[in-house]
Specification:
Layout lengths: L18 E12 L2 E12 L3 E5 L6 H8 L7 E6 L2 E2 L5 H8 L2 E4 L11 H12 L5 H14 L15 H13 L5 E5 L7 H18 L2 E6 L2 H7 L2 E6 L2 E6 L1 H5 L4 H5 L3
Parallel strand pairs: 3-8, 3-9, 6-7, 7-8
Antiparallel strand pairs: 1-2, 1-4, 4-5, 9-10
Helix pairs in contact: 3-4, 5-6, 6-7
Length: 258
């Protein structure tokens, strides 16, 4: 299995101008201890890339650096060709409007109903005030995630899987170019986890967005990934499709599939 830095001629990489998200030579450390080491990452439009790694491998730090919540010590992150490191706060906010996030906890407001959670996001983030337009957006995105019958419910009345669907609906309502998923199946039972994984796959297929999924859930990786990058000690140690990595002779890589 070749390393990502040796994989520049892979046919699925595409030309440079198709990249939605890139990290080049990304290095980040704390207290002199490296967390990311010369990280290379490329995500093309319409592709789902899974970042796979054990706890402590650098997945969370990688995700925060990719969206500008942390700054790299060395290297660069580019979103649609725009360098986050050189962007001021105004430019960074504009870049983030192109992004959709599904956090581990779904990041929804418990004091607002399903409808109100979406309406609040539409009013504040999209600056849309027309009632008819807001209603249309709410109903469309709830249909997309299969949650339209729960429109009047409070978050406390929702199952874990339904809360994830609401979090995804809120992320999708702004029609992002790039979706980022942070451990999207954590805390869910196996059946619900697979439902969310299929929803991620179907969302990418229907909308053609670029998607990055950070996970340690192998079934999620198998269902969603076009490509997988495996992190080990803050570096990309292998890259390929699920089938390619499953047949790897590397003991550490094989351990994920056992």
């Amino acid at each position: 299995m070749s390393l990502p830095t040796e994989n520049n001629d892979r046919p699925d990489q595409g030309p440079a101008d198709t990249a939605t998200l890139q990290m080049v030579d990304g290095t980040k450390g704390f207290g002199g201890e490296p967390v990311l080491r010369d990280m290379q990452l490329r995500l093309n439009q319409g592709e789902t890339l899974v970042i796979l790694g054990r706890s402590g491998s650098g997945k969370t730090v990688l995700l925060k650096c990719l969206v500008g919540l942390m700054k790299l010590d060395e290297g660069s992150v580019l979103i649609q060709g725009q360098d986050l490191g050189s962007a001021d706060s105004k430019a960074l906010n504009q870049i983030r409007k192109k992004l959709g996030f599904l956090f581990q906890g779904a990041a929804i407001y418990d004091s607002l109903s399903v409808r109100e959670n979406l309406e609040f996001h539409i009013h504040r983030q999209l600056q849309i005030q027309d009632d008819a337009e807001v209603e249309s957006l709410v109903m469309k995105v709830l249909q997309d995630v299969g949650l339209e019958e729960a429109i009047g419910k409070m978050p406390s009345e929702l199952s874990g899987g339904m809360r994830k669907r609401l979090g995804l609906a809120r992320a999708l309502v702004s029609k992002p170019d790039l979706m980022l998923y942070d451990e999207p199946t954590t805390g869910l039972d196996p059946v619900t986890s697979q439902e969310i994984s299929r929803l991620i796959r179907d969302t990418q297929s229907a909308r053609g967005v670029a998607s990055l999924v950070v996970t340690h859930d192998m079934r999620c990786a198998q269902t969603t990934a076009d490509r997988i990058i495996v992190l080990r000690d803050g570096a990309a140690c292998a890259e390929g499709t699920y089938a390619e990595l499953e047949s790897s002779s590397d003991a550490d890589i094989k351990a994920f599939f056992s």
